[in-house]
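Re: [ENG-882] Designed sequences occasionally contain unexpected residues at chain ends

Forwarding the minimal case from QA. Structure tokens:
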């Protein structure tokens, strides 16, 4: 592909190389393979299930070691809240107060979500703040018709020159109403971290955010820091990073030509949460908890959620201890034929490693190298929740192009729905992925792994988008907990639904785990 001097300069300024951009274009042209599911991961077949006594032992194991290790909580938090209010934006665009009542609009449009929103209005954490703003500008607000009040309430929430919630970072929206204050998701992550992601009364949290919102996050931390530290008896170290421009991917036309904007510049787009493997790779801690910004609960549920986080961390430390012991044994060359078998058994039974059929035929030297290669990798222990409805992406055994089988987290978009067998395997999933990970990113010598070396680039995927009304093709990098961690050692453990409370639409805030006063 021939680029102009200006375009080459643009590529360089972004921190990209011409080689990297051409590789991206090749991926568009060649197409990317769908993931090949071998079977769903289920209890006893890739997913562990613990009894209460086992859970408690893992929690005790973690608590006994946590003051001797460095712990970090990593929270992807760059998303704006726009999609949370999708049905409200549609309402504001379509509704005509002079032509019909809101009830008539709801019935005509079958707008169930809008109906739920207005019925539950007083239970939203932002209700009193919005009303306060409405009274400031309209002393006769209470004299207006119900239709006028609800319309003005919605506008006050979402209009650019009012509260503008739709363009807020999701982490800074009012999430939970307590008797004496309203908490954001950002604040709840701090309270939660004190319970399980702290050591020596100190908690480190790292948020990936949009650079334009950095000041807002700083202000929120200043507002709550003293209160949260006093209530938790914990000191907080908060750091932020932004999705790196060098992880952006080039956009193409449907004809696989680079999309050129009116000013002659190439169009690059953020490449999805898979780009955050670079941010994760910059961090340094013995173990890292990963959880999305919107997956929080009110205070009365936090202790229960924390117990399961500690259970996952306890299992990580237990497996890590064994893996490190075996790696030192292999490195020292003080291993017998029996010890090689013991290590192979550990990898197979406890680390879900599926061995090559040729392993027993390998020389002892090559067996040792093979075992070191399989052991010396980052480890992730992932909570998995039982499906409570239509199964989507989740835990599967996947076969790669070389015939190797491994445990992976797979999104439904990675699966060929036109292939009946693959579609049936997707439907057979008993669990789904709540993004609930505890990660070990250091080797047995205490050195950080280069996490970019454990990514499967072929698990990227191509999506169709629009730009000023024109169709474009966009490339999403392998998801952070999907292909970006494809070559990690992976353990799945069943956790209860209480650990999974994302806020995808504003109405999710009406659910019990987000209601402190009901």
């Amino acid at each position: 592909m021939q680029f102009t001097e200006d375009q080459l300069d643009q590529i360089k300024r972004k921190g990209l190389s011409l080689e990297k951009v051409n590789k991206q274009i090749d991926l568009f042209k060649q197409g990317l393979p769908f993931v090949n599911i071998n079977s769903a991961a289920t209890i006893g077949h890739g997913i562990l299930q613990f009894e209460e006594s086992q859970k408690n032992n893992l929690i005790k194991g973690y608590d006994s070691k946590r003051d001797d290790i460095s712990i970090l909580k990593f929270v992807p938090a760059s998303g704006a809240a726009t999609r949370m209010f999708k049905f409200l934006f549609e309402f504001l665009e379509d509704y005509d107060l002079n032509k019909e009542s809101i009830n008539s609009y709801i019935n005509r449009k079958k707008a169930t979500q809008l109906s739920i929103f207005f019925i539950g209005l007083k239970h939203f954490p932002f209700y009193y703040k919005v009303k306060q703003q409405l009274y400031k500008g309209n002393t006769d607000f209470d004299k207006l018709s119900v239709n006028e009040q609800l319309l003005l309430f919605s506008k006050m929430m979402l209009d650019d020159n009012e509260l503008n919630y739709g363009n807020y970072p999701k982490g800074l929206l009012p999430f939970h109403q307590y008797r004496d204050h309203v908490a954001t998701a950002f604040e709840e992550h701090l309270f939660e971290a004190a319970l399980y992601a702290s050591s020596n009364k100190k908690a480190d949290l790292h948020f990936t955010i949009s650079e334009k919102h950095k000041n807002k996050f700083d202000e929120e931390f200043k507002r709550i820091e003293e209160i949260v530290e006093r209530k938790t008896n914990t000191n907080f170290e908060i750091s932020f990073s932004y999705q790196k421009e060098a992880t952006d991917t080039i956009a193409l036309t449907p004809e696989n030509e680079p999309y050129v904007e009116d000013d002659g510049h190439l169009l690059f787009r953020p490449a999805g949460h898979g780009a955050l493997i670079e941010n994760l790779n910059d961090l340094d801690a013995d173990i890292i908890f990963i959880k999305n910004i919107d997956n929080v609960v009110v205070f009365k549920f936090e202790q229960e959620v924390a117990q399961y986080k500690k259970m996952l961390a306890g299992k990580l430390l237990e497996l890590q201890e064994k893996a490190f012991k075996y790696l030192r044994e292999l490195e020292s060359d003080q291993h017998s034929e029996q010890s090689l078998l013991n290590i192979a058994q550990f990898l197979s039974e406890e680390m879900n490693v599926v061995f090559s059929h040729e392993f027993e035929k390998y020389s002892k030297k090559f067996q040792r190298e093979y075992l070191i290669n399989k052991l010396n990798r980052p480890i992730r222990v992932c909570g998995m929740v039982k499906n409570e409805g239509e199964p989507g992406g989740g835990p599967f055994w996947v076969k790669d192009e070389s015939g190797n089988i491994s445990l992976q987290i797979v999104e439904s978009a990675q699966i060929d729905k036109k292939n009946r067998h693959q579609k049936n395997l997707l439907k057979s999933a008993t669990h789904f992925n709540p993004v609930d990970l505890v990660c070990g990113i250091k080797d047995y010598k205490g050195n950080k792994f280069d996490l970019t070396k454990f990514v499967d680039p072929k698990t990227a995927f191509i999506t169709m988008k629009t730009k000023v009304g024109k169709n474009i093709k966009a490339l999403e990098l392998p998801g952070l907990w999907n292909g970006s961690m494809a070559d990690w050692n992976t353990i799945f453990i069943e956790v209860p639904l209480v650990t999974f409370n994302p806020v995808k639409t504003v109405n999710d805030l009406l659910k019990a785990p987000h209601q402190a006063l009901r």
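QA comment: On inspection the terminal residues look reasonable. The mean pLDDT is 94. Proposing we downgrade this to a documentation issue.
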